[in-house]
Amino acid sequence: MMKTKQDQEVELLRLVTVGSVDDGKSTLIGRLLYDTKGAFEDQLAAVRKGPKSAKGVIDIQVMGDELDLAMLTDGLAAEREQGITIDVAYRYFSTLRRKFIMADCPGHEQYTRNMVTGASTASAAIILADARKGMLPQSRRHTHIVSLLGTPHLIVCVNKMDLVDYAEDVYRRIRDEFTAYCEKHGVQDLICIPISALKGDNVVDRGDHMPWYDGGTVLEVLESLDVSGRVDDLPLRFPVQYVSRPQTQEWHDFRGFMGRVNSGTVRAGDEITVLPSGLTSKVKEIATFDGNLDEAFAPQSVALTLTDEIDVSRGDMFVHASTLPRVEKAFEAIVCWMGEEPLVSRKKYVLKQTTNMVKAIVAEICYRTDINSLERDDQAGELAMNDIGRVAFKLQQPLVMDAFEDNPATGSFIIIDTFTNNTVGAGMISKI
Amino acid sequence: MSHKLTQLQALESESIHIMREVVAEFRNPVMLYSIGKDSSVMLHLARKAFYPGPLPFPLLHVDTGYKFREMYEFRDSYTKEIGAELIVHRNEESIEQGMNPKQFGVARCCGALKTQALLDSLEEGGYDAAFGGARRDEERSRAKERVFSVRDDFGQWDPKNQRPELWDIYNARIHEGESVRIFPLSNWTEMDVWSYIAVENIPIVPLYYAKERLMVERGSLLIPVEDVKHLHEGEEPKMIMSRFRTLGCVPCTGAVRSSAGTIEEIIVEAAAAKRSERETRIIDHGANTMEDKKKEGYF
């Protein structure tokens, strides 16, 4: 497999940041991008408010005042005109150890839709809290979404410490509030960091204002988070994406089942079961452009060949017989609704899960969670845009699935409106 | 045993997954091929994605007629070498009428020779999905682009009405007449592209490597002199050690002073660069131009 000096040991970490300009999020992101060279000088110069300094050099210390960093993040003309962030923006920066893909989500507008989208691929979430305000209802909402999506790490940046005289007791009080809330709501790993994005304390450099804090800076934490993940320890899930039959002279008999290992590992010689048919065979080869592999693991994209000529097509899943998933025609799921038209009982949609599409009908809305109070309303007649609730579906064809908390890749699905073809919801399959 | 992918391997796997989804779900995909470094990486990933089979879609080059000679040579020899099907489309009517950026302005020239030609060629081919090599780190409106980006009957982009994109589940459903632009390199940065070219030994157009070239200095840009008729009044061409960070049309692509003659030297230079690569592209200058062009149907 390929490997170079540039590439050695550099891992990918996907994260989501959520919050509004008021929280100092833009300043934090600006500092991370600038200090790791994720934002180029000409991009920064283009968003500069005041006159350029004589040297044309951007002074990071005064960036919060002089640069409108929202202009850097807000990529669309409508956003800049209205001074609001409409959509998730993706930002990239890297250090010697890691490359970061950051989904930057607006804190107010469409927060559920955007944050769920951004968090769906993230291994870590950064939430900002204002040291003067503590844990606000909006912090609870964001934390709730992090816990729903099973994001492995939550980093709470208690920002604007400079405005509370870097007082340790202020930080401790906010940290304890988040800790208590996260324990109650099953957030896997919470890390709190007192920072001043404006002054730079504990973002990239430590600064000398908070000697009482002995944890890492934001960048140190991002560089050291354990993202090896548990996908390796999970059972094999290999959804077939595409069946390749080149029928060229050289590859006349090749019949490759192309796909990405969603979780677990598969080895040449493994006995596999094809679901939903239940047929079995043995892996003959794991083929790639760079040669055959003995073993493939998540999230590698490979092509498998089998020793037997059995009926396999897109949408089927290869698993090991010892660790079977569920095969169901009905299930319940937590749904984050994103459509203009509300989700209602008895309505039909198309669900896409792994490489499968299936027609589904809403059998029942079990409850709707009030995203502010987190109370459950079990009389809800619909889910409106940005609502979250538990929904029972009936399917036209069985799907091969796991509960989302057991295996996010086989427990997640999107909901497609059959009339507009838009993606109107995100679903996470519940345990039975 | 270590089951970890490096970040380039992770990006590679993601791009391959995207390409296979497209081929499985769309009726008639095509891959836009601009001959640049990003296209070269995208094409290489496509070969990997469908190995040992041939590419299951043709390559489409929208040719303005203004590309560098080295680009045409590279295009013809490389696509032949890998056995890809190449379609070249030009807006012949505009080219015959002498469309050029100096006389008609950059916006009109790009509109006719790139955007219009692209939309016409997609419609003629009846393609419902078109791969492009754009990256989100290139330009701020692209930071909000989806991997599967739906275009209406007129090929236009509505940035305020984009489908949410969750996990790695892509919604490929469209209405008759609509099409989808696919960006498998969305999450790659300029540095990733260069590193991957080095790791995988991907051939690229020699213009990316530094050598003495005939240039004029126009403002802060170095403009190559392929044809004296593109010179502005009072400009004096001279030989300058330089290379191109991105490749476009001769009259509108600037070079940078550089002595980077190998891929390793280019990587060192890109790592130290303080200015983004698109700075040398005239089309991006002026308010909003990329977003406006994208709305009209440009990649």
Would you count the extended β strands of chain B for me? 10
Instruction: Give me the CATH fold name of the largest domain in chain A.
Output: Rossmann fold
Tell me about the largest β-sheet of chain B: 6 strands, mixed
How large is the radius of gyration of chain B? 19 Å
Unreliable spans of chain A are 1-7, 49-66
**Hey, which two chains have the biggest interface?**
A-B, 83 and 65 residues
Determine the CATH superfamily of the largest domain in chain A: P-loop containing nucleotide triphosphate hydrolases
What's the tally of helices of chain B? 9
Distance between the termini of chain A: 41 Å
Strand content of chain B: 5-15%
Mind explaining what this structure looks like?
The complex is a heterodimer of chains A (432) and B (299). Chain A is of the alpha+beta class and 432 residues long. Chain A has 3 domains: 214 residues, Rossmann fold; 82 residues, Elongation Factor Tu (Ef-tu), domain 3 (Beta Barrel), CATH 2.40.30; 104 residues, Translation factors (Elongation Factor Tu (Ef-tu), domain 3, Beta Barrel). Chain A is built from 10 helices and 24 strands. Chain B has 2 domains: 195 residues, Rossmann fold; 77 residues, no CATH class. Chain B has 9 helices and 10 strands. A 6-stranded mixed β-sheet of chain B has the order 3-2-1-4-6-5. In chain B, helix 1 crosses helix 2. The longest helix of chain B is centred in the middle third of the chain and has 20 residues. The radius of gyration of chain B is 19 Å and the shape is globular. The mean pLDDT of chain B is 88. At the A-B interface, helix 2, strand 2, strand 3, helix 6 and strand 9 of A face helix 1, helix 2 and helix 7 of B.
